[in-house]
Amino acid sequence: MRIGIFGGSFNPVHNGHIHLARSAADEFSLDKVFLVPSRISPHRSSSEYVSAEDRLAMLHAAVSVDERLDVSDYELSVDRVSYTIYTIEHFRSLYPDDELFLLVGSDMLMCFDKWFRYEDILEEASLCVISRITGDSEQLRKKAEELGKFGEVLIGNAEPLEISSTEIRKKIAKNKNISCYLDENVVQYIRLKGLYSLRGETKVHYDPDEKKKYLKAHLSAKRYAHSLNVAAECRKLAQKYGEDPDKAYYAGLLHDICKELPDEEQKALVINSGFTVCREELETRSLWHAIAGAYFIKTNFGVEDIDILNAVRFHTVGRAGMSRLEEIVYLGDLISAERDYKDVDKMRKLTYTSLNAAMLEALSFSMKAVIKKGGLIPVCTAEGYNFYIRLEREEKSSNSKRGTK
Ligand code: ATP
């Protein structure tokens, strides 16, 4: 069989995507094309991104027009950054004897040599390109030739359909008609669920001043000062790393809200939260306040933003695949202004240089400290460490490959 793999955020899937998939299937005689929605990078937490379930549901509706098209939730189901090479390897293991084709729009061809392990991708699959704009055929041909030394690059002849998900989201937010860009069932779905509406575009209102009053009344002066410092640090980090500074400030401010509650109250919150908590966390008193804090702000302050809740929830233990906000709160807590442990300045510098490298260092530091005390390492911390060390290794190997070729 000739199998096409077509990745994207599909936020939402539009006629341009379906046009690409069908044209590639026609032109390159593909028997099957899998549309593979990506995990929205854990490092993006914008409200423009609807849930994975919604994107999947829209995809299923859209592919029903052609029986050659199908949807794969592979990238949504794995707990790691969704690099295309891993997806190709996944399909290779499913279809060891079949021919694989990676489908992309022309914009992706132009930056393809920046993709992680793009040479390996081309070794495993042929690249099929469909143009997104008129008049770029010469440019595409040149690029295809350049990449040709690593594998097969095929350029389709289909007329471009100039649409993007970004444009569609903007149109929906402005209440403009979108029915000519999307499958009718997708339009219905978006309407029914109120996706991408202005509601999502409006900035959420945070009330840090109110919360400061609460914290001041419920925390010791020292803990309150720490909370303010962490909030300020998180705001700065958010500015540096492109996150919402107000949201980061708010999450940082609230991260220790339950830290000084009596043990039994913290434990009760942990138990009632219904969050998945590993055994080591349950057995380590000093970790309860993070889980309790997330549940407390959810139930008492009505905080619904999952990213804020997770940032508070995981600020003590970390985990694999943390969102950028989670990393910011974790590290903001570690380097806030009043911290004065031995290597704090090194840690500060690293945090402002690379969040991944800083997380690796921080989790390793935390595990060493636990080991020294004879404590238990929470599974999510160990998983987090493995996650960041893999990221670092992959980055190093892709840099060195780039350097040698
Ligand atoms: P956004 O505007 O949110 O960046 P997008 O419309 O570019 O989204 P993605 O889901 O990011 O869509 O793209 C997935 C893949 O589909 C990419 O390879 C992209 O080049 C291709 N693609 C998107 N729109 C078109 C189109 N109109 N014609 C051909 N290919 C397209």
* Span of the ends, CA to CA: 32 Å
**Low-confidence residue ranges:** 42-46
Shape: globular
Largest sheet: 6 strands, parallel
Bound ligands: adenosine-5'-triphosphate
Topology diagram in text:
Layout lengths: L1 E7 L6 H13 L4 E6 L14 H12 L5 E3 L2 H4 L6 H11 L4 E7 H5 L7 H7 L1 E5 L6 H11 L5 E3 L9 H9 L10 H10 L4 H4 L6 H11 L2 H21 L3 H10 L8 H11 L5 H4 L5 H14 L4 H8 L10 H12 L8 H10 L1 H18 L6 H26 L1
Parallel strand pairs: 1-2, 1-4, 2-3, 4-5, 5-6
Helix pairs in contact: 2-9, 4-6, 11-13, 12-13, 12-18, 13-17, 14-16, 16-17, 17-18, 18-20, 19-20, 20-21
The structure holds adenosine-5'-triphosphate (ATP).
Task: Describe the structure in brief.
This protein is an alpha/beta fold and 405 residues long. It has 21 helices and six strands. α12 packs antiparallel against α13, α12 crosses α18 and α20 crosses α21.
